[in-house]
């Protein structure tokens, strides 16, 4: 949740500040602007993140990239992954909508029970821990 809030704040401040000084949003959709923005973000990430965390993030990114190939590009060697991912998303949205002002750790415990929706597919199924 904090990741989404942080991303919204960054986008709102960057785009809002750019438009406040008279900039046109389509001007950002040029290669040189994309290089400046992404390079600034990558540099800030490297400066502020310890190497151990960057290695863990790189490993998670590799696993996530594999999941992207499975779900988006439709490899048939993982039958049922799409259906299980859709089922998990439905349950996650239903659980998140029903909790309202409940404390964050209680939400985590409830969502941890949904890990049976995932199947083990090429080594990233072990990343989901059950919290009792």
Automatic annotation (TrEMBL):
This is Motility protein A N-terminal domain-containing protein. The chain crosses the membrane at residues 26-47. GO terms for cellular component: plasma membrane. Keywords: Flagellar rotation, Membrane, Transmembrane, Transmembrane helix. GO terms for biological process: bacterial-type flagellum-dependent swarming motility; chemotaxis. The lineage of its organism: Bacteria, Pseudomonadati, Pseudomonadota, Gammaproteobacteria, Lysobacterales. PANTHER family: CHEMOTAXIS PROTEIN MOTA, MOTILITY PROTEIN A. Residues 4-63 form the Motility protein A N-terminal domain. Coiled coil: none annotated. It comes from the Bacteria.
